[in-house]
Amino acid sequence: MKASIGETLSLLLKIIYLYLESFYRLIVPPARQDVRGKKVLITGAGHGIGRELSLEFARLGASLILWDINKENNEDTADEVRRIGATVHTYICDVTSTDNVHTTADRVRREVGNVDILVNNAGILYGGPVLDMQEKLIRRTFEVNTLAHFWTVREFLPSMLEANQGVIMNIASSSAKSGTAFLVDYSSSKYAVFGFTEALREEIDRLGKPGVQTTVVCPFFVDTGLCKYPKSRFDPILTPKETAVTAIDGMLRGEKEVYVPRSMWLQLRTAALFPEKVLPLLKNFHQYGIDPQYNAKSD
């Protein structure tokens, strides 16, 4: 069916309005949501970004539900959260296991209640030349970094849709916007996280549930111990704390995509204006990248 002149004009007016709104929001950011008393579930909470996300949400008055496969690390984070004064519940969960995720999610619903904010943070990084990667490690990368999002979202999204309220925040990477040599497995898994979040957002919109928000976070290299040999000529390696603070700030302001550092948003849009052969030149000039590594740690 052809679009009428009226429909076309209406579309153009909406586009113009959204452009103006975007410019306005660059100057006057939206107010932050209040998360006091909200139940926030964070996967991979025992280490790195997950730990700092937990502490920042605790400072904001949220109630924490911490998942990690490592009990000792998870309890260490929980102890820090308690010292801040927040309520915390801990669960040991292997997010690659659908049965384990389902069983643990059932426990959360029984013992704590429905989750208001789900943060898919658990991640793993192996790295190394693509021809040297072990098949089992490639599969593990996608099981932890990508497929686990399906299992957690399928558990906690239904109650959000029913209430038309909630947030799903997925931690991706700058490698989700520009693939990185010697991180082919990791980059691919994070590209998938970005696409997963984008498609999920559209599906939620089609379901008519505007109160359910999705946010994807794309940080530059973060000093969590996962990435052993990151390189950058001009941009400093991020700390887990500054990554967590920026991620939560963007999420609380309703941003669909959060880049850390914030300047990356402009860099990506500027790069999109250049011929595709320019991007490798810019990356080489900035010396963005990583040297091969062969060991692995979970986030």
Automatic annotation (TrEMBL):
Keywords recorded for this protein, A-Z: Lipid metabolism, Membrane, NADP, Oxidoreductase, Transmembrane, Transmembrane helix
Topology with respect to the bilayer: Multi-pass membrane protein
Primary subcellular site in the record, as a coarse category: membrane
Coiled-coil stretches: none
Stored InterPro entries: NAD(P)-bd_dom_sf, Sc_DH/Rdtase_CS, SDR_fam
MF terms in GO: all-trans-retinol dehydrogenase (NADP+) activity
GO-annotated cellular components: lipid droplet; membrane
Organism superkingdom: Eukaryota
Compartments reported by the entry: Membrane
Known role: Catalyzes the reduction of all-trans-retinal to all-trans-retinol in the presence of NADPH.
Family classification: Belongs to the short-chain dehydrogenases/reductases (SDR) family.
Protein name: Short-chain dehydrogenase/reductase 3
Organism of this sequence: Haliotis diversicolor supertexta
